[in-house]
Amino acid sequence: DEIDGVAAAPDGSAWLTGKFERTATLAGTELVSAGQADIPLARIEPDGDVAFVHSFGGPGEDNLFDLAADERGALGTGWFTGTIEFDDVTLTSEGSTDCVVVAFDPEGGVRWARSFGGPGPDGCNEVSLGHDGEITTSMDTAGGWTSPAGELDASEDRDTLLMRLDRSGELEWGRVADGAGAQRGKAIAVAEDGTV
Question: What are the respective helix, strand and coil percentages of the chain, to the nearest 5?
């Protein structure tokens, strides 16, 4: 089990996510996975009270690696295998794993969820929220698909894809960061003027 993403909201509450296998207890709530690994989600109030604990998943391994939060809720990024359900949204991966970007309201309800990926293993790592609510994330991809940055050749080495989405989940742009050997996005920061 892992807590991979922690984000502080403007009201002082803390959001937590990651993955758990089989069963786990988070903030006093017992969770049972639907598959190999599921995604926990919790928000802790500034006084330490638990606002909610939820879980999301499917039959495979699912994980959110990072969170960003503001007064409108939180954004999570990670990967999933096969199919996954986020409340009423069902996503199906194109390959072994796909990137997932999911938006939550302040009570942990799902506003929307989107997936990105090709035939190989793909997944999103880091996420940042800009001042206007824009979402920037990094995705590690094995290529072999038409990405937000254009056609990517399949490769045994992964490339890193930067993506910008608006607050409703609509794609604004994509850029590839590649080079010799495998690439991996491990941190992301967005300046006040929107540069990454």
Answer: 0, 60, 40
- Torsional class of 104: left (φ above 0), alpha (ψ -120 to 50), beta (otherwise): beta
pLDDT tens digit string along 94-121?
Answer: 989 999 999 999 999 999 999 999 998 8
pTM: 0.91
CA gap 196, 188 in Å, rounded? 7
Query: 71-84: string of b/e by CB count within 10 Å (b at 16+)?
Result: ebbbbbbbbbbbeb
Q: CA-CA distance, 149 to 134, in Å (whole number)?
A: 18
56: how many CB neighbours lie within 10 A of its CB? 25
What is the C-alpha separation between 149 and 163, in angstroms, rounded?
8
